Amino acid sequence: MAQPNLPNLTVQQLEYLVAAAEGPTRAVAAASLGVTASALSQGLAELERRVGVRIFERQGRQTRLRPQANEVLTHARRVVAETRDLARWAGMQRTGQAGMVRLGTIDAVAVNHRAEAIRRHRRATPGLDLRLTVAPSGALLDSLLVGDLDLVVCVEPTGLVDGLVISPCLEELLYAYAPSDVHVGAPTEWGPWVTYPEGSHTRKVIAAGLSVLGAPFAVIAESNQPEVLREMVRLGMGWAVLPAAGAEAGAEPLTRARSRPVGVRRLVVARRADVVTDVAVDNLASVLLRG
Q: What are the beta bridge partners of residue 64?
Protein backbone atom coordinates (compact mmCIF):
# COMPACT_ATOMS: atom_id res chain seq x y z
CA MET A 1 0.00 0.00 0.00
CA ALA A 2 1.43 3.35 -1.01
CA GLN A 3 2.26 5.77 1.77
CA PRO A 4 0.25 9.05 1.73
CA ASN A 5 2.09 12.24 0.87
CA LEU A 6 3.11 14.16 3.98
CA PRO A 7 1.69 17.68 4.32
CA ASN A 8 4.43 20.32 4.20
CA LEU A 9 3.69 21.93 7.56
CA THR A 10 5.87 24.40 9.45
CA VAL A 11 6.36 24.60 13.20
CA GLN A 12 5.20 28.22 13.02
CA GLN A 13 1.88 27.20 11.50
CA LEU A 14 1.38 24.59 14.23
CA GLU A 15 2.28 27.19 16.85
CA TYR A 16 -0.37 29.48 15.35
CA LEU A 17 -2.93 26.68 15.67
CA VAL A 18 -2.11 26.06 19.35
CA ALA A 19 -2.34 29.78 20.14
CA ALA A 20 -5.63 30.16 18.26
CA ALA A 21 -7.12 27.18 20.08
CA GLU A 22 -6.06 28.45 23.52
CA GLY A 23 -6.73 32.18 23.09
CA PRO A 24 -10.19 33.70 23.61
CA THR A 25 -9.87 35.61 20.33
CA ARG A 26 -7.53 35.65 17.39
CA ALA A 27 -6.37 39.11 18.38
CA VAL A 28 -5.29 37.80 21.78
CA ALA A 29 -3.68 34.74 20.19
CA ALA A 30 -1.75 36.91 17.74
CA ALA A 31 -0.56 39.21 20.52
CA SER A 32 0.72 36.23 22.54
CA LEU A 33 2.92 35.29 19.59
CA GLY A 34 4.02 38.83 18.78
CA VAL A 35 2.40 38.84 15.31
CA THR A 36 -0.52 40.70 13.79
CA ALA A 37 -4.00 39.21 13.67
CA SER A 38 -3.78 39.32 9.88
CA ALA A 39 -0.54 37.30 9.85
CA LEU A 40 -2.08 34.77 12.23
CA SER A 41 -5.17 34.36 10.06
CA GLN A 42 -3.07 33.94 6.93
CA GLY A 43 -0.89 31.34 8.62
CA LEU A 44 -3.92 29.38 9.82
CA ALA A 45 -5.50 29.50 6.37
CA GLU A 46 -2.29 28.13 4.86
CA LEU A 47 -2.16 25.38 7.50
CA GLU A 48 -5.71 24.37 6.68
CA ARG A 49 -4.88 24.32 2.98
CA ARG A 50 -1.81 22.13 3.46
CA VAL A 51 -3.55 19.66 5.77
CA GLY A 52 -6.38 19.43 3.24
CA VAL A 53 -9.05 19.26 5.93
CA ARG A 54 -11.27 22.01 7.30
CA ILE A 55 -9.93 22.89 10.77
CA PHE A 56 -12.02 25.94 11.65
CA GLU A 57 -15.67 26.88 11.36
CA ARG A 58 -17.48 30.13 12.02
CA GLN A 59 -19.94 30.51 14.87
CA GLY A 60 -21.49 33.93 14.59
CA ARG A 61 -18.62 36.42 14.59
CA GLN A 62 -16.18 33.90 16.13
CA THR A 63 -14.00 31.31 14.43
CA ARG A 64 -13.85 28.01 16.32
CA LEU A 65 -11.84 24.84 16.00
CA ARG A 66 -14.01 22.06 14.57
CA PRO A 67 -14.36 19.04 16.92
CA GLN A 68 -13.17 16.81 14.05
CA ALA A 69 -9.86 18.74 14.01
CA ASN A 70 -8.82 17.80 17.56
CA GLU A 71 -6.35 15.29 16.12
CA VAL A 72 -4.58 18.11 14.29
CA LEU A 73 -4.46 20.18 17.49
CA THR A 74 -3.05 17.26 19.50
CA HIS A 75 -0.31 16.80 16.91
CA ALA A 76 0.40 20.54 16.87
CA ARG A 77 0.74 20.70 20.66
CA ARG A 78 3.14 17.76 20.70
CA VAL A 79 5.32 19.15 17.89
CA VAL A 80 5.44 22.66 19.38
CA ALA A 81 6.33 21.33 22.85
CA GLU A 82 9.06 19.07 21.52
CA THR A 83 10.43 21.84 19.32
CA ARG A 84 10.60 24.15 22.32
CA ASP A 85 12.43 21.44 24.25
CA LEU A 86 14.85 21.14 21.34
CA ALA A 87 15.39 24.91 21.28
CA ARG A 88 16.13 24.94 25.01
CA TRP A 89 18.55 22.02 24.62
CA ALA A 90 20.32 23.69 21.71
CA GLY A 91 20.65 26.91 23.68
CA MET A 92 22.17 25.05 26.63
CA GLN A 93 24.58 23.30 24.27
CA ARG A 94 25.65 26.60 22.75
CA THR A 95 26.30 28.16 26.16
CA GLY A 96 27.94 25.10 27.71
CA GLN A 97 25.07 24.53 30.15
CA ALA A 98 24.49 21.02 28.81
CA GLY A 99 26.39 18.24 27.11
CA MET A 100 29.04 15.87 28.40
CA VAL A 101 32.61 16.61 29.48
CA ARG A 102 35.05 13.82 30.34
CA LEU A 103 37.53 15.29 32.81
CA GLY A 104 40.66 13.55 34.02
CA THR A 105 42.72 14.78 36.97
CA ILE A 106 45.43 13.58 39.28
CA ASP A 107 44.25 12.94 42.83
CA ALA A 108 45.74 16.13 44.28
CA VAL A 109 43.57 18.20 41.91
CA ALA A 110 40.35 16.28 42.51
CA VAL A 111 40.78 16.10 46.29
CA ASN A 112 42.58 19.33 47.13
CA HIS A 113 43.37 22.09 44.65
CA ARG A 114 40.26 22.16 42.45
CA ALA A 115 37.69 20.12 44.38
CA GLU A 116 35.60 23.13 45.39
CA ALA A 117 35.83 24.69 41.91
CA ILE A 118 34.56 21.46 40.34
CA ARG A 119 31.70 21.27 42.86
CA ARG A 120 30.70 24.89 42.18
CA HIS A 121 30.72 24.28 38.44
CA ARG A 122 28.52 21.22 38.76
CA ARG A 123 26.02 23.14 40.89
CA ALA A 124 26.03 26.02 38.40
CA THR A 125 25.47 23.75 35.38
CA PRO A 126 23.02 21.01 36.47
CA GLY A 127 22.41 20.06 32.83
CA LEU A 128 26.06 19.19 32.28
CA ASP A 129 27.06 15.52 32.39
CA LEU A 130 30.50 15.80 34.02
CA ARG A 131 32.42 12.53 34.19
CA LEU A 132 35.56 12.48 36.32
CA THR A 133 38.48 10.09 36.05
CA VAL A 134 41.29 10.19 38.64
CA ALA A 135 44.55 8.61 37.55
CA PRO A 136 48.32 9.27 37.26
CA SER A 137 49.44 11.95 34.80
CA GLY A 138 50.86 9.56 32.21
CA ALA A 139 47.68 7.51 32.00
CA LEU A 140 45.55 10.65 31.78
CA LEU A 141 47.58 12.08 28.90
CA ASP A 142 47.42 8.76 27.05
CA SER A 143 43.63 8.72 27.42
CA LEU A 144 43.44 12.33 26.24
CA LEU A 145 45.49 11.62 23.13
CA VAL A 146 43.29 8.69 22.04
CA GLY A 147 40.08 10.66 22.67
CA ASP A 148 38.83 8.94 25.82
CA LEU A 149 39.03 12.23 27.76
CA ASP A 150 38.22 15.82 26.77
CA LEU A 151 40.22 17.68 29.40
CA VAL A 152 43.06 16.77 31.75
CA VAL A 153 44.68 18.43 34.75
CA CYS A 154 47.99 16.75 35.49
CA VAL A 155 51.68 17.23 36.19
CA GLU A 156 53.41 19.06 33.36
CA PRO A 157 55.01 16.51 31.03
CA THR A 158 58.71 16.72 30.28
CA GLY A 159 59.07 18.11 26.78
CA LEU A 160 56.39 18.91 24.23
CA VAL A 161 53.61 16.45 23.49
CA ASP A 162 52.43 16.53 19.87
CA GLY A 163 48.73 17.08 19.45
CA LEU A 164 48.11 18.74 22.81
CA VAL A 165 47.49 22.30 23.92
CA ILE A 166 48.89 22.78 27.45
CA SER A 167 48.15 25.73 29.73
CA PRO A 168 49.83 26.37 33.11
CA CYS A 169 47.42 25.86 36.00
CA LEU A 170 49.31 26.09 39.30
CA GLU A 171 52.59 25.24 40.99
CA GLU A 172 52.76 22.79 43.86
CA LEU A 173 55.66 22.72 46.33
CA LEU A 174 57.04 19.30 47.22
CA TYR A 175 58.56 18.73 50.66
CA ALA A 176 60.54 15.88 52.23
CA TYR A 177 58.86 13.98 55.07
CA ALA A 178 60.52 11.48 57.39
CA PRO A 179 59.13 8.91 59.86
CA SER A 180 58.39 10.29 63.32
CA ASP A 181 61.44 8.61 64.90
CA VAL A 182 63.84 10.51 62.61
CA HIS A 183 65.28 13.79 63.88
CA VAL A 184 64.29 16.54 61.47
CA GLY A 185 65.68 19.99 60.89
CA ALA A 186 68.87 19.64 58.88
CA PRO A 187 69.03 15.99 57.77
CA THR A 188 72.46 14.61 56.92
CA GLU A 189 71.19 11.16 56.01
CA TRP A 190 68.23 10.82 53.67
CA GLY A 191 65.98 7.89 52.97
CA PRO A 192 65.33 5.18 52.14
CA TRP A 193 62.42 6.42 50.06
CA VAL A 194 58.84 5.49 49.31
CA THR A 195 57.77 7.32 46.18
CA TYR A 196 55.86 7.42 42.94
CA PRO A 197 56.42 4.67 40.33
CA GLU A 198 59.32 4.72 37.89
CA GLY A 199 58.51 6.83 34.85
CA SER A 200 55.96 9.07 36.57
CA HIS A 201 56.24 12.81 36.02
CA THR A 202 56.31 13.59 39.74
CA ARG A 203 59.08 11.08 40.40
CA LYS A 204 61.25 12.82 37.82
CA VAL A 205 60.76 16.13 39.64
CA ILE A 206 61.61 14.50 42.98
CA ALA A 207 64.71 12.77 41.63
CA ALA A 208 65.98 16.01 40.12
CA GLY A 209 65.40 17.93 43.36
CA LEU A 210 67.14 15.35 45.55
CA SER A 211 70.03 15.23 43.12
CA VAL A 212 70.56 18.98 43.50
CA LEU A 213 70.64 18.50 47.30
CA GLY A 214 73.11 15.64 46.99
CA ALA A 215 70.64 13.26 48.66
CA PRO A 216 70.67 9.57 47.68
CA PHE A 217 67.43 8.29 46.18
CA ALA A 218 67.23 4.64 47.21
CA VAL A 219 63.62 3.56 46.60
CA ILE A 220 62.14 0.69 48.61
CA ALA A 221 58.43 1.03 47.80
CA GLU A 222 56.22 2.70 45.21
CA SER A 223 52.63 3.89 44.87
CA ASN A 224 50.69 6.20 42.57
CA GLN A 225 48.62 7.40 45.52
CA PRO A 226 50.12 10.08 47.79
CA GLU A 227 47.80 8.97 50.61
CA VAL A 228 49.43 5.53 50.53
CA LEU A 229 52.90 7.06 50.52
CA ARG A 230 51.92 9.24 53.46
CA GLU A 231 50.80 6.18 55.42
CA MET A 232 54.06 4.40 54.59
CA VAL A 233 55.93 7.31 56.16
CA ARG A 234 53.69 7.15 59.25
CA LEU A 235 54.41 3.43 59.54
CA GLY A 236 58.14 4.15 59.51
CA MET A 237 58.81 2.40 56.21
CA GLY A 238 60.76 5.29 54.71
CA TRP A 239 60.91 8.93 53.67
CA ALA A 240 58.75 10.54 51.00
CA VAL A 241 58.61 13.75 49.00
CA LEU A 242 54.99 14.84 48.78
CA PRO A 243 52.79 17.87 48.12
CA ALA A 244 52.10 19.68 51.37
CA ALA A 245 48.32 19.79 50.75
CA GLY A 246 48.03 16.03 51.13
CA ALA A 247 50.92 15.23 53.48
CA GLU A 248 49.98 17.77 56.11
CA ALA A 249 46.22 17.25 56.06
CA GLY A 250 44.10 15.16 58.39
CA ALA A 251 44.35 14.28 62.07
CA GLU A 252 47.95 13.07 61.86
CA PRO A 253 49.84 15.44 59.54
CA LEU A 254 53.41 14.66 58.59
CA THR A 255 56.20 16.99 59.68
CA ARG A 256 58.58 18.40 57.13
CA ALA A 257 62.12 17.06 57.37
CA ARG A 258 63.39 20.27 55.78
CA SER A 259 61.79 23.72 55.76
CA ARG A 260 62.62 24.41 52.14
CA PRO A 261 60.93 22.47 49.33
CA VAL A 262 62.75 19.72 47.49
CA GLY A 263 61.16 20.75 44.22
CA VAL A 264 58.17 22.25 42.45
CA ARG A 265 55.83 20.34 40.22
CA ARG A 266 53.79 22.33 37.76
CA LEU A 267 50.22 21.32 37.11
CA VAL A 268 48.72 22.05 33.71
CA VAL A 269 45.40 21.87 31.90
CA ALA A 270 45.77 19.84 28.71
CA ARG A 271 43.47 19.48 25.69
CA ARG A 272 43.76 17.97 22.24
CA ALA A 273 44.68 20.48 19.57
CA ASP A 274 42.69 18.89 16.73
CA VAL A 275 39.16 18.91 18.15
CA VAL A 276 36.16 21.07 17.32
CA THR A 277 35.54 23.80 19.89
CA ASP A 278 33.14 22.68 22.63
CA VAL A 279 31.77 25.48 24.83
CA ALA A 280 31.16 23.12 27.76
CA VAL A 281 34.81 22.01 27.68
CA ASP A 282 35.97 25.63 27.29
CA ASN A 283 33.94 26.73 30.30
CA LEU A 284 35.27 23.97 32.54
CA ALA A 285 38.83 24.63 31.42
CA SER A 286 38.43 28.28 32.42
CA VAL A 287 37.08 27.25 35.84
CA LEU A 288 40.05 24.93 36.42
CA LEU A 289 42.57 27.54 35.35
CA ARG A 290 41.06 30.20 37.63
CA GLY A 291 40.55 27.90 40.57
A: 57
